[in-house]
Design a protein that fits this description.
Rossmann fold; quercetin 7-O-glucosyltransferase activity; 5-stranded parallel β-sheet; globular; alpha/beta; about 160 residues; 5 helices
């Protein structure tokens, strides 16, 4: 029997990022592919709530799991910069542990990681674990085009490293 494809989708914890990745996950699951969506622990309850309220719109073969994001260690939970630093410090190791655990079971083994472009560490972890990966950019073509040109703008002296 052929092994079922299992895609692990890694989201960035913001509404404009989770929603498009959930829609992509649904399209993938509609083709009979097993999908596990990974969210940050701090937004997991909200994601489950929205997912449950729109159950008819989403494939029931999508599983949503969370990994710790470091938010429980923050003094000021509303400080976005501290949240992002904590997320980058905690989530890579948690994702690696999740993939290792899933890959220890033939039925759960990850075939591919699809991650939001902002969570670059997910691609490093996938590569380290020997799993193929694909980047998802939930924004406009213009925004990725501009983002990819920033190094050239700095090199040409149009922008400095502070964006001025």
């Amino acid at each position: 029997m052929d092994k079922q494809i299992h895609v692990l989708v890694v989201t960035y914890p913001a509404q404009g990022h989770v929603g498009p990745l959930m829609k992509l996950s649904n399209l993938i699951a509609d083709r009979g592919i097993k999908v596990t969506v990974v969210t940050a622990e701090s937004i997991h309850a909200r994601v489950l709530s929205v997912f449950s309220s729109k159950q008819g719109e989403f494939n029931s073969h999508i599983r949503i799991v969370s990994i710790p994001d470091g938010s429980d260690q923050l003094k000021d939970k509303k400080d976005r910069n501290e949240f992002i630093k904590g997320m980058w410090r905690v989530m890579p190791g948690q994702l690696e542990e999740l993939i290792r655990k899933m890959n220890s079971s033939e039925e759960e083994k990850i075939s591919c990681v699809i991650a939001d472009a902002i969570v670059g560490w997910a691609f490093e972890i996938a590569e380290k674990m020997g799993v193929k990966s694909a980047m998802f950019w939930p924004s406009t073509l213009e925004s990725i085009s501009l983002s990819l040109q920033i190094p050239k703008l700095i090199e040409d002296g149009i922008l400095d490293h502070d964006g001025n």
